[in-house]
Structures are given as structure tokens and as C-alpha cells.
Write a structure and sequence with these properties.
alpha/beta, 7-stranded mixed β-sheet, 3-stranded parallel β-sheet
Length: 661
Amino acid sequence: MKEKLHAYVSEKKHHIYRRECPFSLAEEFSSENLSPAERMTRRFCRLMAEETPVILEKEDICFLRTFKSLPDIFTPEEWADIKSSHYIHELGFMSNLTPNYEKVIKHGLLSLKENADSYGKRMIDAILCLTERYKKEAIRVGRQDLADILSRVPAYGATTFHEALQSFRIIHFALWYEGNYHITIGRFDKYMYPYLQNDLEKGALTEDGAFSLLCDFFISFNKDSDLYPGVQQGDNGQSMMLGGINSDGTDTFNLLSSLCLKASYENKMIDPKINLRVSKNTPAERFTEASKLTAAGLGFPQYSNDDVVIPALMKLGYEYDDAVNYTVAACWEFIIPNVGTDVANISALSFPEVIDKALHSSLESSETYEDFYTAVENELRKKADEITESIKNLYFIPSPLMNAMMDTDIYNGGKYNNFGIHGTGLSNAADSLAAIKKYIYEEKSLDKTELIKAIDENFANHPLLLHRLRYESPKMGNNDDFVDLLATNLLDSFAKSLEGKKNCRGGIYRAGTGSAMYYLWHANEIGASPDGRLKGESFGTNFSVSLFAEVKGPLSVIASMTKQHFENAINGGPLTLEFHSGVFSDEDGCEKVGLLVKTFIDRGGHQLQLNTVDSEKLREAKLHPEKHRNLVVRIWGWSAYFTELDPEYQNHVMARQIYTI
């Protein structure tokens, strides 16, 4: 590991090179009545021209962003006009894309320039001009080795592993500077391994030398990541996929894959966020190897099951060669590199809200549970209609550089233009249905009016009922078909509510099991719920048991959460498990966790992520953040430094179920 460089970046000493952008552009662009594409191009070229080349001591992968922020290209009045007739997703850029890094690294930007539009050509020229200035700076500081590499890449195709890594860094740097965000890394070990393999075979590089370069490369992801937009620091989308099958069914996991796991373990930084594609054929020792990162407290790797994901994507209409090449978006949504322009996180549906609406509108008139569930399905369809009807005339700010690096015209829609809808609070909703079904319709021990009144009063005058619903009622996580199959029904109904709908870009809607930040937002939009959840209490993150469910252990949770029909809801959203740090107190800890992950995959689970939690350390970090700056936790689909999170996210991590083995 590059210890000196690692410490320099970890301690944020490189921030001394940062500065405020000295110019604004929106009024100037508006006065000239420039097109959005021209505005984006001019801003990018000016930023590139005014960037200051910085080469840190001992670094082998250079390029450092010095401007803290990007000036707006639209005035507030222009933005208001755009929003008056368009749906704007997040910041207005097409995010969560994976460009064709393989092609750009292999052939170089000059080759790419040949087919780029006029805006893309100018942007490429701007990147190459900045690279030339970096080359001169490398010579000035006595780094002829770096200067030689910058003489080739990214203008021309990379010929060595070092050149390939440096080329990627410049491309990634430039895409963020264009204004894009949540730009994922894709199947890194698949497209980068040939360079490593060639160097090793020629004797131009040793495995130790390659590992040193890789550690440097991984550090580079953390130089500017706090400047990248997200809900919280760490939510930046720098997700790297490792492993998975090729079109011919062979496994892509290779030496570079293992070195990536090792580099991540050694660096112990939040970026890049490691994702691992696995299947029933994945050897047990790979799960053990990956679990070392979990033991280190990194909150990754996140696992995706090829056996489930690939057929499910094909069921949605993705061609086999594309489905087999899937990667993940910023968090966990499944996307297709190079050709996919899916908006995988465009909205979210709250299952507990649907239950709440049916409870208040139809419970008293429903003679049977089936009658009540019909009302739930009606409310679910209404909500799905409301969400899909609200997404019309979607507008994206042009991204000429990103467009040049994709194998499709992203302005007019890629090969795939599907929209993903998260489904939040599934376990809370299923637990609520279980309570209603058991106590009202089967045992007939609970009065409908009493339940509604108790919920509306936040159980203030109903302590015994609260205890019964909260701690005695069936809960997901205990391998109880009574409640688990209700969750299956809900998820199937969710998928069915989106069937046949076309979005404004000609694609379909994909149901999912993720939550993103909605586990807080949606929970604040309703009062108490029939599962015993009180007003203001959060839902479980993603596809997880409720925060207060009393469960038998991680095996019973896995059994509960692998029964659902994921082929119907494959937008992504992992089962999230938090393990007590004591699980890894002996040498067998990683092997035990690895076997648990394999069990999840063998049972047909589609996605899994693990956290290592020490409650005492988390409490200490809240009180004395200066002592725990590098404490990492998994939030919803990304890892962050605990002390940099807002209190509501810190508190949610501390409230989650913690398991032992």
C-alpha cells in the first residue's frame, strides 16, 4: 500500500489545492441565448483550461480536481421555465450510467473523437490540452515516468496496465467535471485484466508492482469524491463490479479481481465500492476472501446473484448478451454498460402507505382478508398510476462527453430506457398484513375500529395492543410462511401494477426491493402502522426486517427473504444484514460469514450486503467524532464515514438489527 499517499489523502491534506470557481456563466450564456449543449461545452472547456495541474508526491496515478464547484449554466428563471413543462429527475443529468471504458482505454480519445459530435470533439480537445499541461508539470517535478505515460494516454490506446489505469482516471475525472454524477466503474476486472495479463506475461510488471499501482489507483477515487453530489457524503456512485459470467458461461473472476479485493482491504477507504457477481457455482473460498472486507468494516462487497439476475433481466426484455453483462448503478440497481440509459431510481412506492390507505378506506367494510387485500391491491395500483403519470416529458441536461463515450445516442434514448421504481418498507407492510389477517380475520380477537383508533392515536392509549402487535405478532425474518408469503404477494402485486405501462422514453417500469433514502422519508409521511411501528420510526433499509422485529438469527432472516419471486421485481435492492464485530474475533469468522453468503445465494437470493457494527464504537463516535474519522458503515447502497453522516442516518444505523453467528 502507498502509505504516505494514503495518509495524505485520508487526512485530506490535498484540500490545500482547492479553490472556489472564480467565474459565473449563467447570465453570460443566457444573454447570448446559447443552446444547452453549447453551454455545457463552453463550461467544460473553460474549466479544463483553468484547471491547475497537481501531482502529489509519490503518486503514480495523477489528476486532481481543484475547483470545488461547477458554475450553473442556467439562470434561476431559465430553470423555472424548463421545470414548468418537464419532469426533472434529481439534478437534471442522466446519472447512473456506465460508459464504454473498455473502448476508450483501448483506442484512445483521438479515435473516439472521429465519431463524436462537434461538442464532444471540443470537449475531447480540452481534456487532451489539460493532459499536455499535466505532462509538462510531471517533467517539471522530475516525474519523467508519468510524463511518458501522459504522452500516450488518453489520446491513444493504452499499451500497459499503468497506462490503462491512468487513462481511466482521466476519463472518470473528466466525466465528473462535465457535471455527470453517479458514474459507475462497471466490470472493471473484465475490461482491465488483459493489460495486467500482458504485462505479467512479458515480465514488464510483477504482481507486487501491479498491486502497488492498483492501491494508488484506488486512492485516486477518494481524492475528489467529497465534491461529487449525493444525498450524503459517500453517496457518489463509484461502484466497481467484479466477477460474473461471460456470454459463453465462463467465469470472469481472475487475478485482478483478487488484487482488487486485496487493495480495498489494505486501503480501507470508502471508494471504490466493491460489488461481486456470484452464483451457485462460485467456490466457497471466494466468499471467504470477500468476507475479509466485511470483517474490515467496509460495508462491502455487495453480492449479486447471476443465477437470478440474468434470467430476470431477460424476462424484462434485455437481450442475453446485455443481461449477462449487467453491472450495478450507484447503489444496487441493475444497469447495462455501454448501451443502457435506464433511469433506475426515478421514484419509489411506500408499501406501508398503501396499507395505511386501505386500512382507513376499506378495513371496516372488508368482510374477509381477501376483500381487504383486494383493497390493498387497488391502492397499490392507484399509487403506481400516480407515480407513472407524474413522470412525463423527462428532461436531461445534455452531456456531450458522456454521449461520446456510450455506444448509443443518450439524447434520444439508448437501447434500454426503462425506469426503476423502488419499493420501500416491505417487511413493515407484510408484518402489518400478518397482524390484520391473524387478529382480525382468523382469531377475530381484535376489533377493526379499535385498531384504526389505536393507530390514529399512535397507540397512546393502547399499550397492551402496541406490545401485542410489536412483539407478539408474526414478523418477517423468522422463516414463517404466514408472513413471508404475504410479502411475496405484495411484491408480486407491485410488479403487476407496473405491467404494460410505457414511460415517456418508450421503456417499461421495473419494480424493485430497494429503499434508498426513502426508508426515512416515506416513514415520516404516515403515522403508526399495524405492525406496532410508532409514528416517526423508520422502516428497515432496502429489503430487510423491521427495526424492532425479534428474529431468531441471520439464517432465519435469509430463509424469510429468499422466498419471494425476484424475477418479477429485479430493479435491485439487497437484503441488508448487520453483524456484530465480534463475529470476526476468531480466524473462522470470515469463513462462517462466507458460508452464510453462499447459503443466501444457493437459496436463490438476488442481492445481499453486509455491515460490521460495534454499537459501543458507534456511540463513542457520535460523542467524539475526531477519534473515529475513518469509521466506515453501510448506509443503503453505499458506504460512508460514520462521523460525516447527518444524525438521522447515524441513528438509523445504530437502530438496525445486529446479528451473530
